[in-house]
Design a protein that fits this description.
It is built from ten helices and nine strands. It has 299 residues and is of the alpha/beta class. The protein has a single domain, classed as 3-Layer(aba) Sandwich (Rossmann fold), CATH 3.40.50.720. Helix 1 links the parallel strand 1 and strand 2. Helix 1 packs across helix 7, helix 3 packs parallel to helix 4 and helix 4 runs parallel beside helix 5. It is globular, with a radius of gyration of 21 Å. Keywords: Oxidoreductase. InterPro entries: NAD(P)-bd_dom_sf, SDR_fam, SDR_oxidoreductase. Belongs to the short-chain dehydrogenases/reductases (SDR) family.
Length: 299
């Protein structure tokens, strides 16, 4: 095997299946190094048999356990002495009407989808020497931009993750070269709607023609169009871009969902613009200078 000392080091949560494992396999095949976190120690025994420890470190990790997250990053620093890309991929879905979703299940969903990635940020900086830079890919969903019936808490977790990613990316001084990228996959054959989907009990008030029932039927009968191997290559490419976008949709379905929701928001905003502007203090008007000042502050 060629010298690995200068190859990138990736840290991937939820690496035992789906997009996480596909990404891991692609990285190892090209010669990159990786820390793969899993909940079951033997989940990646096939790859451990194929790749040497100098290239692959498998760590047992439950993202709901902050001390395990800290330990995983400590082992990463000890093993590789650097870290280039973190991929917060671990997660699952919770499906059910809001009224029938037990609070403990709802809180656990938010804990995994939001707080797991949040805990990773400071440790990522601690692993690297000052000025090393890096990328943090937070795996969201088309449902992290446009919410659907029966997936309220899933979307809430993803919405929170997207807002957090945007905020911490703005907080990072440019010279640190640390950038967050929100990945919004569409439908892929990952097992998400099978083993990785928890169902809350059905509510008797919502019949077969309710919005939730219709969405459930669509979700379980629609053929997914995404190729997880192509998705892995797209994530590798975007992580290596010097000026990556804040958001990247994976798949034409996700691209279309996000575009539709963004356009609908703009149309709705235009429809109610007069009422929005009417709340300004007298004398401020609605001049373009206000909007330009806002744009300058946000760019």
């Amino acid at each position: 095997m060629s010298d690995l000392s200068n190859s990138q080091v990736w840290f991937i949560t939820g690496a035992s299946s789906g997009l996480g494992k596909s990404l891991l396999e692609a990285l190892l095949a090209e010669g990159s190094r990786a820390v793969a976190t899993v909940r079951k120690p033997d989940a990646l025994s096939d790859l451990q048999a194929k790749y040497k420890p100098e290239q692959l470190l498998v760590v047992t990790l439950d993202v709901m356990n902050p001390s395990q997250i800290e330990e995983a990053f400590r082992r990463t620093k000890e093993h590789f002495q650097r870290l280039d890309v973190v991929v917060n991929n671990a997660g699952y879905g919770l499906m059910g009407e809001i009224e029938m979703t037990p609070e403990d299940l709802a809180r656990q969903q938010i804990e995994v989808l939001f707080w797991g990635p949040v805990h990773a940020i400071p440790f990522f900086r601690e692993v690297n020497p000052k000025g090393h830079g890096g990328r943090i890919l937070n795996i969201s969903s088309a449902g992290g931009y446009s919410a659907n019936a029966t997936l309220a808490f899933y979307s809430a977790g993803k919405f929170a993750l997207e807002g957090f990613t945007q905020a911490f990316t703005r907080e990072m001084p440019p010279e640190w070269n640390i950038k967050g990228i929100i990945i919004e996959p569409g439908g892929f054959q990952t097992g998400w709607r099978d083993a990785n989907l928890v169902h809350a009990p059905a509510h008797p008030a919502y019949g077969p023609d309710s919005p939730g029932a219709k969405f459930r039927n669509m979700a379980f009968t629609t053929s997914y169009i995404g190729d997880i191997h192509k998705a892995a290559q797209a994530m590798i490419r975007i992580a290596r871009e010097p000026d990556p976008p804040l958001r990247l949709q994976l798949g034409t379905d996700s691209f279309g969902i996000v575009a539709h929701r963004a356009n609908a928001t703009l149309k709705e905003q235009e429809r109610w613009a007069e009422l929005s502007h009417s709340t300004n203090l007298d004398g401020f008007g609605t001049g373009p200078e206000i909007l330009e000042a806002i744009k300058e502050a946000l760019d």
